[in-house]
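Anyone up for a design puzzle?
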């Protein structure tokens, strides 16, 4: 919400400044071109403002030129207006200006619809107004709190980790006593909700990486930052945490959680009692694993080592029925995979 409000304020500042320059400095008869292009240029990242700003400038300049040629040589009527729209929308398909290519047509709408025959706009003046609007939009986004989305990405990943940890704790609590198919169905619904959040988090993570490109805040941060012990967890590129790697680990954890829940769901239909030793120790390990995921600074014994110890104890005991090993082994295997993710420092402390 804070980020959205800041972007709104920057858009207001950029558009207002461009309008003031058009009216009081350029004395433009079409003072809406500069503020309009300024609005188009204030994007959610600095890199996007720069790249889209160039596209907007080119597309709008083409739109102004198209309007000038059609209005000056053919006049403005329904057929020439339609011709300008056709040429503008066709030009919008050009690959290297496709993101902002529709500005060709919309600029033609503004120029031709503003009374071209009476005002006879000068081609170069209109292009200057477009350039002024784009320049102000880029400058405002570049200099006034340039957007950085790392915090959003970290919060998103952290929230997913907490939800996964919470599901594991619930599973352990219910598994340690008894559970029914309805409980397994509830876990399945919750992990599917987490999977949907992971899909959304990928967009946020890609956005965070883009927000670091061409961002002056990174230069200032490097110049003023005092080295801390936690810096050893950052990537060797110096760009901070590799969120793509972190989220791929989280995505993998969701996959193993699905398999774990499916195993427990199917086990509700199995006949025969559970081995209480396995049940209590596996539930204890799973509960601690959930707490470790939800709180990466929690002081826990290594989950992987405890699983190895449990596996050896059950294998050496020899009293476990042979028919039970496929289910018990599946539960152990899923937790082995999740334990590897828990012990991965990159997916825990450096992000959170």
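Challenge accepted. My sequence:
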């Amino acid at each position: 919400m804070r980020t959205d409000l800041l972007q709104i304020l920057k858009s207001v500042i950029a558009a207002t400044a461009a309008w003031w320059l058009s009216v009081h400095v350029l004395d433009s008869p079409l003072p809406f071109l500069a503020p309009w292009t300024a609005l188009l240029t204030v994007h959610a990242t600095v890199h996007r403002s720069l790249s889209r700003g160039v596209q907007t400038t080119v597309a709008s300049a083409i739109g102004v030129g198209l309007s000038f040629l059609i209005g000056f040589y053919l006049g403005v009527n329904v057929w020439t207006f339609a011709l300008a729209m056709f040429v503008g929308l066709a030009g919008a398909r050009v690959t290297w200006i496709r993101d902002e290519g529709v500005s060709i047509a919309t600029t033609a709408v503004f120029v031709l619809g503003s009374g071209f025959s009476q005002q006879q706009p000068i081609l170069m003046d209109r292009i200057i107004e477009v350039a002024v609007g784009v320049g102000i939009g880029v400058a405002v986004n570049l200099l006034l709190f340039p957007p950085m989305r790392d915090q959003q990405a970290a919060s998103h990943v952290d929230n997913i980790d907490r939800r996964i940890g919470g599901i594991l704790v619930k599973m352990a609590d219910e598994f340690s006593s008894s559970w029914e198919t309805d409980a397994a169905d509830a876990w399945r619904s919750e992990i599917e909700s987490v999977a949907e959040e992971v899909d959304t988090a990928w967009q946020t993570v890609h956005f965070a990486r883009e927000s670091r490109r061409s961002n002056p805040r990174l230069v200032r941060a490097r110049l003023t930052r005092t080295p801390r012990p936690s810096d050893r967890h950052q990537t060797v590129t110096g760009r901070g945490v590799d969120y793509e790697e972190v989220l791929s680990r989280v995505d993998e954890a969701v996959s193993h959680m699905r398999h774990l829940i499916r195993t427990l769901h199917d086990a509700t239909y199995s006949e025969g009692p559970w081995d209480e030793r396995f049940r209590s120790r596996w539930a204890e390990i799973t509960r601690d694993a959930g707490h470790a995921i939800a709180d990466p600074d929690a002081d826990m014994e290594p989950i992987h080592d405890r699983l190895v110890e449990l596996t050896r104890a059950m294998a050496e005991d020899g009293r476990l029925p042979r028919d039970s090993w496929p289910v018990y082994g599946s539960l152990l295997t899923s937790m082995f995979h999740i334990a590897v993710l828990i012990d991965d420092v990159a997916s825990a402390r450096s992000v959170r």
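A detail worth pointing out: The chain has two domains: 2-143, 150-347.
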